[in-house]
Amino acid sequence: MTSLETILFRSAVAALVLHAFDEAVVSPPAGTALGDHWSVLALALLGIGVAVVYPRLPVVARALLAFVFLPLAVAGAAMHVMDARWNGAHGADFTGFLLIPAAGAFVAAAVLAVLSRPRPRSWPRRIGRWALTAVAIILLGLFVSLPIGVGVAQSRKPGRAIPESAFSTPHRTVALHTRDGPELAGWYVPSRNRAAIVVVHGGGGDRLGARRHDAQGWTWQADVAAALDFLSPRKDVDPDRIGGLGLSAGADVLIEAAAKDPHLKAVVLDGATVRSLGDVRRLKTSDALTGIPYWSIAYGTIAALDQSRPGEPLVDLARRIRPKPALLIASNELNEPFVNRKYAAAYGDLGALWRVDAGHTRGLAEHPREYRRRVFAFFDKAL
After folding, report:
1. CA of 177: how far to CAs of 36, 329, 337, 371, in Å?
2. So where are the chain's domains?
3. pLDDT above 90 covers what percent of the chain?
4. From the centroid of its chain, how far is CA 155?
5. Which of 58, 103, 280, 343 could cross-link with 291 by S-S, CB 3.0 to 4.6 Å?
6. How confident is the model at residue 209 (pLDDT cuts 50, 70, 90)?
7. What is the DSSP letter of 170?
8. Helix, strand, coil content of the chain in percent (nearest 5)
9. Top-level CATH class of 164-274+311-382?
């Protein structure tokens, strides 16, 4: 007879598999094809295999599976709730909502697995077992579940419609045609002096975040290239006077663009951090010891879901920016002072680094006059 634990786990896996099939085959996101989702379908097949053998696995293995499957359900459900709130429920959102009870089923199955262990006879052993269980839950939550959830969120955050009224500066909404297929919407403020700046938002944001100046961007080079392709032939823009301002992950993206794209003539890199294990290994030893296991899981999740790779380490790319002018801005957070000093040293000019006493990409908000003075002066000289 199939146990309640097995029924709960298999039911939850069935919800995940159904949603994966819906998202990949029935209601794929706009601009994607079946070939863009083969890795998700492969993971779904792996989930089916795990569900089949689940009852024959040791108790500890069954309990540990929750730390892998639970964040997939929780983060996936959160992304679809967000999508429904912003855009109304549609497409794969409906099977995405099934991930909410699936998350509860994974928790219940894990609890039943833990409770099914033989009970130690002595109180000291019982206390010791529960203490070890608590420590294991904390460590697995921090270094397995959390990075998986972050990876799902970064690769599955939904888009949203942005009204014209969201940006008060006179502008035009334009279409940017990327070389890899998707069409992007952007705001263009006509140039008054034939210079133009491409603003690249952070990994957790969109045009609204860039407007407010506030979050991996492995596949964004085609997006930046689309913006440069839009600007370069314009009569009101001098192709030799095109710069870029990148925020957070957008700064990471512009380090690569500046190193590789001749159309980009100068860059301001605000809040560059790390985007690959090659970057994480260059952190301080104490940060690398915890960062490598954490980001191995997070980057692996993103790579599996998005079928993408992070590219070269940012330090190696920073060496190739010169002779283009660059200004690096580092806040007090996210290892920015340490990593940006490395990027500035690789660039060949430690004087190109400005340490701002502010939160992540909050230099403009917290020091508006100094930020504007430095950035405007940089672009005035560079372009």
Report:
1. 19, 30, 36, 32
2. 4-156, 164-274+311-382
3. 58
4. 6
5. 280
6. very low
7. S
8. 60, 10, 30
9. alpha beta
